[in-house]
């Protein structure tokens, strides 16, 4: 016992810890475009970014009922359990033990001769006489404890802790993605509603045009070909309306799935044509992404855990010290098992170093090194992707704003052209093909303007997600 204690003290005094390498710093640009404003819209809660109360209600419902988010919570529970297991590995494992055995020693064995000779002693009498066969009864506690000389077990606990933090960041990634996807689908739904309104308005105009050309055909001013062209245009526009209705149903069902419920109508706010973008959009600086975006923080935690795994794999090559103490009642007669004289205490210490299984350890080290490099590359990639997404969506908001202004003017001009073509056709100064072309151009331009308005809001949502917003 004293020798084992001295051995533990000696090894503890010359302890060599295998510390993992520090997480490398990934450089980022000084700014996204030209602005160096330190504020970021990613710091804003989604309730202050989105002005539509219906969208906010949908997001709140999804945060309470979304199944992917509930799955992420279970992953956190698993990671916490693994961390608890790694903490327990640092402590002795103690088991309550009760054993009973029976041995018949051969006459020409060390135990057989020794027991026979012992029974002949005058000092051995009564219950101290050794029976043959010899029972063996034990009731007490046995422990097993690996002394963490090299910090291997503490590094395993550290890796488990980092993975637990990574799982929590993974939940934030799900929340961010959920918030962004709901907003995207909601604005897509508003855009489809607006497309349906535009198409229905054009159906009414085209129906009147068809009636007018039918009257003119009766008067002999146009041929049946003109009537067929107007009727074909009307049928094509009606078929467009059917496709939009189906897209609305599909989009509503996608929202319902995110809300964790069966299909039902989705409440909408004002038309996308009346929705207002924020007056100003600030992105901050790229260095904030490393501290803000949950997927970057998750990749960083995974990298830290992978680096710790390398230190653990290196420590596996060193000797391990194991102690197996026990305390309990031990006797070969049941009648004296509960006697104080049957108390038994002992400890066994063993120092083991790998010799013939080093190929396995080398393989584990090679795997850990490769996984560490992979985690670092993934960490670089997610930062690079994040900066690129912010720049793309910042430019998208700016460019789509210019496109929307030009398309608004285009729609106004084409509407005037369509009115003029109707008047000229009625006065027999324009052909029916010119009327059809003017009506089709107005429809296409109005739908294009709605698509651009939708693209503006989708860029805003994607920028918010790219800046790490939505998980507060």
TrEMBL record:
GO terms for molecular function: efflux transmembrane transporter activity. It is found in: Cell membrane. The keyword Nucleotide-binding does not apply. InterPro entries: MdtP/NodT-like, OMP_efflux. GO terms for cellular component: plasma membrane. The keyword Membrane applies. Keywords: Lipoprotein, Membrane, Palmitate, Transmembrane, Transmembrane beta strand. It comes from the Bacteria. SUPFAM superfamilies: Outer membrane efflux proteins (OEP) (SSF56954). It is a lipid-anchor. Belongs to the outer membrane factor (OMF) (TC 1.B.17) family. This is Efflux transporter, outer membrane factor (OMF) lipoprotein, NodT family. It comes from Spirosoma fluviale.
